[in-house]
Specification:
- The chain is an all-alpha fold.
- It has one domain (3-54, 74-481): Amino acid/polyamine transporter I.
- The chain is built from 22 helices and four strands.
- The protein has helices spanning 3-25, 38-53, 58-69, 84-95, 98-111, 115-139, 153-163, 167-204, 216-232, 234-263, 268-279, 288-304, 310-316, 323-330, 332-352, 362-371, 377-407, 412-431, 435-447, 449-458, 460-476, 495-501, and strands at 28-31, 34-37, 142-143, 149-150.
- It has a two-stranded antiparallel ribbon. Strands 3-4 form a two-stranded antiparallel sheet.
- Keywords: Cell membrane, Membrane, Symport, Transmembrane, Transmembrane helix, Transport.
C-alpha cells in the first residue's frame, strides 16, 4: 500500500472526527477582518495574570536562576533523577525545534515582519506560565521507593486540588490531561518531527532525484534505532543525551544565524524598524494590526508550549527540595525559545529579504536565508533540523511515558508498551505524512491546556506562597548555598568525585556562598 493510499484511508475514517475536534479546540471569533482563536486568548490571559500574580522579575531573579542551574542550592543526595540543568535541557530540546525554524517563517509569510514583535511579547508572558508549571510539578510530584519520580500536571491536578478540597474535580482533570497528552505527543513530538527531518534530508540531497526520495522509512529506521536505545534508559538516559545535544544544536544554529546577521549587519537597523512599524500597522495583512498580533502570538504559543504542562514533567524529576527553584529555572525556557532563537531566525529572514519571495514559506524560507551565505549553509541547517527533531522526539517520549504511567496506575508494562509504540511511530512518521494523525494530536496537545491552566488558577494561592517564601528565604539566609562537595555537576555526577579527580582542588568559582538578595517587600 502506498503512502498516499494510507493517508487517504486515515482521512476517510477519522476526517470527520478530527474536523469536529479542531472546530472545538481552535474555535475562533471574528475581530474585524481577522479571526481570534479563543485558545490563544486563554493562554495569553493566563500569562498576563501569572506575570502580575507572581511578580515576575527576570532581571532581578537572573542571578539566582543561574546559580540554581549550576547546582548551588541542591545536593546530589536530594530526591530526584536529574539536575536542574538537565531538566532545562530536556524541556528546551522539546520546544526548540521546527517551531523556531519553520514556525517563525510561517508567521512572517502570513503576518509580515511585525509578527516577530508579538512572538517576543508572547514569549515574555510565557515565562510566568512555565514558572507556575515547574513549581507545582515539583511540589506535588511522587517519589517512588526505587528513587524514580513521577510528576506533572496530572499530579498537581489530582493531589493539589485534593489539598484544597476539590478531590473529584482534581481526579477528573488529572485523568483528562494525562489521556490527552499521551495521545498528543505521538503527533507533535514524534510523527511531525520525523516527517520534517526526512523531508529536509530529501530536499538537500536532490529532491525527487534524491536516493532517499520515496525511501523515508530508511531515515525513520535510523532515527528509531538511535532514539530507542536512549528512550529505553528512561529519564536519566534522555537527560544525559539532551543535555549534550541541546547546547550543540543551539550553538550551531546560533553561530550560523550570527554569521548571516554579520554579513548583513547594515540591514539590521532597517529590519528592526520594519518589525516595529509593521507590528503596529499590519499593512497588507488580513485584519491589520489585530491579524499580525494573532499570527505572532499563536506561533509563539505553539513554539514554546507554555501552558501545555511539559515543563512540569521535565522539572518534577530534578534533584531538589524547593519547588520554586525549578520554577525560576523553567521561566527562562520561553525566553530562550521565543525571545532569543525565534527573534534571531526572524532577523535572518528579514535582513536577507527572502520573506518578500512569496513562493517560499516554512523551512524553505529559512533555507533560502541560509543559502544567501553559501549553498553549504543549507547542510548546516539540515544538521540543526535533524538535531532539533531528534531531541524533540526524545523529550516527548518521556512525557508520553509518564502520562501513560499515570493513566495505567504506574504499570511498567504499559509504559514499556508505549515506548515500543512510540518508536514504531517514528518509522511510520518518516514514511508517510499521516496528516490526519498530526492534526488530531495537535488538537489534543492544545486541548490539555484547558485542564492544566484551570488547575493552576485553582492553585494560584499555593503557588504564590511557594514563590514568595522562597524569595524571602534567600534574602534572610534561610536558604543557604550548599557546600561544593555535596552538590552534583550540571550533568549529574557527584561533585565530590570531580574534586577528588582534581586532587582535592576546587574548581574556580566554587566557593560562591553569598545569599542571593531578594526584596522582602515583594511579598
Amino acid at each position: 500500500m502506498s503512502a498516499t493510499s494510507v493517508d487517504e484511508s486515515i482521512q476517510n475514517i477519522f476526517g470527520p472526527i478530527v474536523d469536529f475536534l479542531e472546530t472545538i479546540v481552535f474555535f475562533a471569533v471574528p475581530i474585524g477582518d481577522a479571526e481570534l482563536p479563543l485558545l490563544v486568548v486563554w493562554l495569553i490571559s493566563a500569562g498576563i495574570f501569572l506575570t502580575f500574580w507572581l511578580r515576575i522579575r527576570p532581571i532581578r531573579d537572573a542571578k539566582l536562576s543561574f546559580k540554581i542551574i549550576k547546582g548551588h542550592y541542591s545536593r546530589h543526595s536530594d530526591p530526584g533523577q536529574v539536575t536542574s540543568f538537565q531538566a532545562l535541557a530536556t524541556e528546551l530540546s522539546g520546544t526548540i525545534g521546527l517551531g523556531n525554524i519553520a514556525g517563525v517563517a510561517v508567521a512572517i509569510s502570513l503576518g509580515g515582519p511585525g509578527a516577530t514583535l508579538w512572538i517576543i511579547l508572547a514569549g515574555l508572558l510565557g515565562m510566568a506560565v512555565k514558572m507556575a508549571e515547574a513549581t507545582l510539578g515539583q511540589k506535588y510530584r511522587t517519589v517512588h521507593a526505587d528513587g524514580s519520580v513521577s510528576g506533572g500536571p496530572m499530579y498537581y491536578l489530582r493531589d493539589g486540588l485534593k489539598s484544597i478540597g476539590r478531590p473529584k474535580l482534581g481526579k477528573f482533570l488529572g485523568l483528562f490531561y494525562a489521556a490527552g497528552m499521551m495521545i498528543a505527543v505521538l503527533g507533535a513530538g514524534n510523527i511531525f518531527q520525523a516527517n520534517q527531518v526526512t523531508a529536509q534530508l530529501v530536499n538537500v540531497t536532490g529532491g525527487t532525484d534524491s536516493p532517499l526520495y520515496g525511501q523515508g522509512w530508511i531515515v525513520g529506521l535510523v532515527l528509531a534505532l538511535v532514539a530507542g536505545v536512549v528512550i529505553i534508559g528512561g529519564i536519566k538516559s534522555i537527560a544525559r543525551m539532551t543535555s549534550r545535544i541541546t547546547p550543540i544544536m543551539a550553538v550551531l544554529y546560533v553561530l550560523c544565524v550570527l554569521l548571516i546577521l554579520a554579513i548583513n549587519i547594515g540591514q539590521i537597523p532597517a529590519a528592526i524598524a520594519t518589525i516595529f512599524s509593521s507590528a503596529f500597522t499590519g499593512a497588507g495583512v488580513t485584519g491589520g494590526i489585530i491579524g499580525v498580533a494573532i499570527i505572532g502570538i499563536q506561533r509563539a504559543v505553539f513554539s514554546n508550549a507554555a501552558g501545555t504542562g511539559t515543563a512540569a514533567m521535565a522539572h518534577a524529576a530534578s534533584k531538589n527540595k524547593r519547588p520554586a527553584e525549578e520554577g525560576l529555572v523553567a521561566a527562562w525556557e520561553p525566553f530562550i525559545d521565543s525571545v532569543v532563537i525565534c527573534t534571531m531566525t526572524a532577523l535572518a529572514i528579514i535582513v536577507t529579504g527572502v520573506y518578500q519571495d512569496t513562493t517560499s514559506d516554512g523551512v524553505a524560507m529559512t533555507t533560502d536565508a541560509f543559502n544567501t551565505v553559501h549553498d553549504a549553509f543549507s547542510i548546516l541547517l539540515t544538521v540543526s533540523i535533524a538535531l532539533f527533531g531528534f531531541s524533540t522526539i526524545l523529550s516527548f517520549s518521556y512525557y508520553g511515558r509518564k502520562t501513560t504511567g499515570y493513566v495505567f496506575n504506574q504499570s511498567k508494562i504499559a509504559e514499556r508498551a508505549y515506548d515500543v509504540v512510540y518508536v514504531v511511530f517514528i518509522v511510520i512518521g518518516a514514511s508517510v505524512s499521516l496528516d490526519m494523525v498530526v492534526r488530531f494530536s495537535d488538537a489534543m496537545f492544545f486541548l490539555v491546556t484547558v485542564p492544566n491552566m484551570l488547575g493552576i488558577y485553582f492553585l494560584a494561592k499555593v503557588l504564590r506562597k511557594e514563590v514568595f517564601d522562597h524569595r524571602v528565604g534567600c534574602q534572610t539566609g534561610q536558604i543557604p548555598v550548599v557546600p561544593l562537595g555535596e552538590r552534583s555537576t550540571i550533568l549529574g555526577a557527584k561533585m565530590s568525585e570531580k574534586i577528588d579527580k582534581n586532587g582535592g582542588s576546587q574548581p574556580s568559582g566554587g566557593a560562591d556562598k553569598d545569599p542571593v538578595s531578594a526584596n522582602a517587600s515583594d511579598r
